[in-house]
Design brief:
By secondary structure, the protein is α+β, with helices and mostly antiparallel strands. The chain is built from 29 helices and 12 strands. The structure holds zinc ion.
C-alpha cells in the first residue's frame, strides 16, 4: 500500500500489450508478459554491440543543439516562472547508499517537524502540503534509483540500487503508522478549513489514506488492522513465490505433438521419442495449445497448467480472501472489492461488476459467432458433426482460423518501419496535435552511449515543458520490456516556481543488423506510440501537487490515453505520413496487408474479451462473496463464474491457484477492459473531428483536459470535459464490431 502522502508511484508504466506477440491469441496479461520476456533473448547481444557506434553516428534526423542550447532552454524556463533541471545520476554504489541514507534522514526530520507542531498552529502549508513535499523528495530518489537499477551498465551499481530500493521500501512501510504525524494533520482537518479545488482534494485524500490504513479507529481495532495487514502481506508473498516456483513437466511422444513446430520440438526433446513440455512455462504452453492437432494433447497440458500450485496456494487463498474481507469490514466497507475500488475511477464494486456484465452481454453475439467458426473448423478437422469447442480447443482453432482465413504475415511490414523514420514520423504527429516542439539537446551525462535527450516546448509561446530521454535498444542487464519511467515529476515548488518534469522511455527495439537499419514490427510501432503517450502525460502536467501530477491518476484510467493513441498506427493516413520501404521510400504500406491485419485482429476479439471478463468477474466475485464461513467455496465459485462467462472449466481444476493477479491486482482485473472502453470512447473525439488523428483542436483538448490536470480533479470530470458529453460504451462495442450485429439482431426479433 502506498504510504500516506508519500508518492510511491514511480511513474513506471508498462505497455499493456494490446498487440504483443500472443496478445490476440488471448493470453491473460501476466502470461503475455512472460511470453514477451521469453522472446527478448540475449541472442541479439552481439548485434547490439556491433550497432552501438553506428547508432551514435546516425543520431536523429536533426542536428543536436550545442550544450549551451540546453542552458538557454533552462534559462528560458525562468521567464515562465518554471524550473528545468536534469537529475544528478548516481554512478557508484557509495553514491547510491548515500542518497538513500540522506533521503531517509531528511524525510524523518521533516516528518518530525510536522509531528512537533503545536496543534493551534497547524496550517495547510505545514501539514498537508508539507507531506506532499516530503513525498515528492522521496519520489525523486526512488524514481531515479529505480531507473538506474533498470538501465545501469554496471552490475555492481544495479545490485546496489536494488538493495537501496529495498531499504527505502522497508522504511516507508512504517510511515503509514506514524501516529504523531497523523495527529498534526488531523488537528488541521478538524478545523474544517474552507479549501477549494486541488487543495481540497489533497486534504480529502490525505485523510482518506489515513482512514484506509485504520488510523481513524480506536486503538485496539487499529492494532488489529495493522496485525491483519502484516499477516496478509506474508500470505501474499508466499502465494506469489509459489506461483513463481510452480513446475510441472508433461511428457509427450512425437506423434502426440503433431502440428507443433519442429524448431520447438528440437528444444524440448528429452529422450528417444520423449518430449517434455513444461506446463508452467507460458511459451511452451502456448506453443502446444496453439499448434497441437490432437485434442487429447491439448487437454492433458491444460489440465496440468490449471492445477499448478494448487496444493499450496488454495489453502493460502482460503485464508487470504477471508482476511481481506475482515480488514475491509473493520474499516467500514462492505467488501474488499469496495475497499480496493474506492480509490479508483470506478469507485465501487457494483459499478465494476455492472460494467463487465454489460460488456459480457454486448459481446454475446460476437462471441457466439466466433465459437461457431471454431466449431466449424473442428467439425471439418475431426469429421464429427457434433464436435464442441472445449476450453482446451479455442487457442488451436483461433490459430487455425487466422492461418487459413486471413493468411497474415505481419513480419513483411517491418521494411516499412525503419526506426528513425518511425520516430521522426511519430514526433511530427505528436508535435502537431499537441502544439509542441521537440528539440534534440546534448545530455551532459549519459548512462549509455546512444542515449538521446529532447527538450519539449510549447510551439506558440516557447514555454519549456520538460525533457525526455530515449534509451531504445537492448543490452545486457537492461530492463527487458518497454516502459516510460518518470524521473522528475511536475510540482509547484515552495518558492512559487513550477518544477517541469523529466522522464525517459526505456525500450527494446530490434537493433540494426549489418547493412540495414533497425526495422520495427507493426506492434513495436504501436508500442512506441503508446509509451510516448505516457511521456506526454508526464511532461504536459500542470498539477500543483506531486500526488496528482503527470501519470499519477487512478490505476483504472492511467492506460486509457495511451491505449487510445494505439489507434493511430492502424490508420492508413497516419502510417503513410511516415512509413515507407527503407530500400525504396516511394513504396507505402499496401492497403491490403493492413486490412488483413485488422480483420485478423477483429476475428477473435469476442473470445479475447469474454475471457478477460471472466477473469474480471471471477476476481470481483471472490472479493465480494468469500468470507470466513464459506472460504472452502473459493475454487468452486471461481470455476463457476469463469465457466458462465467463458468456456466451461473442467472438473478438478483450480485455475485461480496460479492466477498471480489475485495478489497484485486484486479486485482490479476489470480495469483492463475498463480502460480499453474509455480509450475507444476518447478516440472518437479525434475520429469525428475534421483533421482525424491529425486534428490539433482535439489534441489541444487532450492536453488541457486530460494531461494537464492529471489527478488534480476527478478523472471522470476530465474525461467528460474532453469528450464534451457523457461517457459511452458504444464506441468500444463498435470497435469490436458488435454494435452493428446487435442492431441487426434486434430488427430480426
Ligand atoms: Zn502503458
Amino acid at each position: 500500500m502506498r504510504p500516506i502522502g508519500l508518492r510511491r508511484n514511480r511513474g513506471q508504466l508498462l505497455t499493456l500489450p494490446g498487440d504483443f506477440p500472443g496478445a490476440r491469441s488471448g493470453l491473460g496479461w501476466p502470461a503475455r508478459f512472460g511470453y514477451v520476456l521469453k522472446l527478448m533473448s540475449w541472442k541479439l547481444l552481439p548485434y547490439v554491440l556491433l550497432a552501438l557506434p553506428a547508432l551514435c553516428v546516425n543520431g536523429v534526423g536533426q542536428s543536436a543543439m550545442p550544450g549551451d542550447r540546453l542552458r538557454q532552454y533552462e534559462e528560458r524556463a525562468v521567464r515562465f516562472n518554471a524550473v528545468i533541471r536534469l537529475p544528478h545520476f548516481e554512478t557508484t554504489s557509495n553514491e547510491v547508499l548515500e542518497t538513500v541514507s540522506s533521503t531517509i534522514a531528511e524525510a524523518n526530520s521533516a516528518l518530525d517537524r510536522i509531528a512537533a507542531l503545536d496543534p493551534r498552529r497547524v496550517t495547510f502549508q505545514n501539514t498537508v502540503r508539507a507531506l506532499d513535499d516530503i513525498g515528492y523528495q522521496i519520489g525523486l530518489a526512488d524514481s531515479r534509483l529505480y531507473l538506474i537499477k533498470e538501465t545501469s551498465t554496471s552490475g555492481t551499481v544495479r545490485d546496489a540500487t536494488t538493495e537501496a530500493l529495498k531499504r527505502l521500501e522497508e522504511w516507508s512501510v512504517g510511515l503509514d503508522y506514524r501516529e504523531d504525524v497523523y495527529r498534526a494533520v488531523k488537528a488541521y482537518a478538524d478545523q474544517k478549513p474552507h479549501l477549494e479545488g486541488e487543495d481540497a482534494k489533497l486534504l480529502l485524500e490525505t485523510m482518506r489514506d489515513y482512514r484506509r490504513a485504520g488510523l481513524g479507529l480506536p486503538r485496539a481495532q487499529r492494532d488489529g488492522v495493522e496485525r491483519m495487514r502484516k499477516e496478509l502481506t506474508g500470505l501474499c508473498t508466499d502465494f506469489e513465490s509459489n506461483v513463481t516456483k510452480a513446475e510441472q513437466a508433461v511428457k509427450f511422444t512425437k506423434a502426440e505433438l503433431e502440428g507443433v513446430p519442429d524448431t520447438f520440438l528440437a528444444q524440448i526433446k528429452t529422450g528417444p521419442n520423449e518430449y517434455t513440455v513444461m506446463a508452467n512455462i507460458t511459451w511452451h504452453y502456448m506453443m502446444v495449445e496453439e499448434n497441437a492437432k490432437r485434442e487429447e494433447t491439448r487437454k492433458r497440458l491444460l489440465l496440468a497448467r490449471d492445477n499448478l500450485a494448487r496444493a499450496k496456494n488454495i489453502p493460502l487463498l482460503e485464508k487470504i480472501l477471508p482476511l481481506r474481507d475482515d480488514i475491509a469490514k473493520v474499516l467500514g466497507y462492505k467488501s474488499w472489492a469496495d475497499y480496493q475500488t474506492e480509490i479508483k475511477m470506478v469507485k465501487n464494486a457494483a459499478t465494476a461488476i455492472d460494467f463487465l456484465e454489460k460488456l459480457k452481454t454486448g459481446l454475446q453475439p460476437k462471441f457466439d459467432a466466433e465459437i461457431a467458426e471454431f466449431r466449424k473448423l473442428k467439425v471439418q478437422e475431426t469429421g464429427e458433426a457434433n464436435a464442441q469447442i472445449n476450453i482446451w480447443d479455442w487457442r488451436y482453432f483461433s490459430n487455425q482460423l487466422k492461418k487459413e482465413k486471413y493468411d497474415v504475415d505481419a513480419e513483411q511490414l517491418r521494411v516499412y518501419f525503419p526506426y528513425q523514420r518511425v520516430l521522426d514520423g511519430m514526433f511530427s504527429i505528436y508535435q502537431r496535435i499537441f502544439g509542441l516542439k521537440f528539440e534534440r539537446v546534448e545530455p551532459p551525462y549519459t548512462w549509455v552511449k546512444d542515449l538521446q535527450l529532447y527538450a519539449v516546448s510549447d510551439v506558440k509561446t516557447g514555454e519549456p515543458m520538460g525533457l525526455f530521454y530515449l534509451d531504445m535498444f537492448p543490452r545486457e542487464g537492461k530492463y527487458n520490456h518497454f516502459a516510460q519511467f518518470g524521473i522528475i515529476e511536475g510540482k509547484l515548488l515552495e518558492n512559487g516556481k513550477y518544477q517541469r518534469p523529466v522522464c525517459s522511455l526505456v525500450c527494446n527495439f530490434p537493433t540494426p543488423a549489418p547493412g540495414q537499419p533497425s526495422l520495427l514490427s507493426h506492434s513495436d510501432v504501436e508500442t512506441l506510440f503508446h509509451e510516448f503517450g505516457h511521456a506526454m502525460h508526464t511532461i504536459l502536467t500542470r498539477a500543483k501537487y506531486s500526488r496528482f501530477s503527470g501519470t499519477s491518476v487512478p490505476g483504472d484510467f492511467v492506460e486509457a490515453p495511451s491505449q487510445m493513441l494505439e489507434n493511430w498506427v492502424w490508420d492508413k493516413r497516419v502510417l503513410d505520413s511516415f512509413a515507407a520501404d527503407y530500400r525504396d521510400p516511394s513504396k507505402k504500406i499496401p492497403e491490403e496487408i493492413l486490412g488483413k491485419l485488422k480483420a485478423a485482429r477483429l476475428a477473435t476479439e469476442g473470445t479475447f474479451y469474454r475471457r478477460q471478463i471472466s477473469f474480471g468477474l471471477m476476481d470481483l466475485r471472490l472479493h465480494t462473496a468469500i468470507h470466513d464461513r464459506n472460504a472452502k467455496q473459493t475454487v468452486p465459485l471461481s470455476n463457476e463464474v469463469m465457466s458462465r462467462v467463458f468456456l466451461p472449466r473442467p472438473e478438478g481444476t483450480a485455475f485461480v491457484a496460479y492466477f498471480g493477479h489475485i495478489i497484485g491486482y486484486d479486485a482490479g482485473y476489470y480495469g483492463y477492459a475498463w480502460a480499453d472502453a474509455i480509450a475507444a470512447d476518447m478516440a472518437t473525439v479525434f475520429e469525428r473531428s475534421s483533421g482525424g488523428y491529425f486534428d490539433p483542436t482535439a489534441g489541444r483538448r487532450l492536453r488541457t483536459e486530460i494531461y494537464e490536470p492529471g489527478d488534480s480533479r476527478d478523472v471522470n470530470v476530465s474525461i467528460e470535459k474532453f469528450l464534451g458529453r457523457q461517457r459511452s460504451l458504444e464506441p468500444f462495442l463498435e470497435k469490436l464490431g458488435i454494435a452493428k450485429q446487435q442492431k441487426v439482431a434486434g430488427k430480426e426479433n
